[in-house]
Amino acid sequence: MTDPQVLKRIVAVFTYLKTTKGLNQKQLSSEFGVSESTITRLQNGQNTVTLRFLKQLQSIFDISDDWVLTGRGEMLLPKGNTDSSIELEEDLKLLRRIRKKKGLSDLIEILLKLSDRNLSAIQALAEKLHSK
């Protein structure tokens, strides 16, 4: 169960994301990489707020994790470097795509261990296969 004060702020966050950002339940679940029922359980206080969720709120939507947990400060973080924010969002989307494709995470782990020479050979082979 989530602390009642934290739950009020979570509800405020989801209300903000739905009304101001125009996101629906399905879009929210996609942004966070969870099921729609997980979003519902977060809003109802049935799921505990995780560090991962808080970091996603901060990195994707500029929502202060400190505000969510303690109520201190403002809900919205000041806009920082939008380039790095966009880059981080693109990285998160890529990571979600990697996690959805069966076996791809394992393949990436193997590729990370290869020498530059072997990695170049694999890249050339992949490009050749892709062009067919």
UniProtKB/TrEMBL annotation:
InterPro entries: Cro/C1-type_HTH, Lambda_DNA-bd_dom_sf
Span of domain HTH cro/C1-type: 21-68
Entry GO MF terms: DNA binding
Top-level taxon of origin: Bacteria
Coiled coil residues, start to end: none
Full protein name: XRE family transcriptional regulator
Organism: Leptospira gomenensis
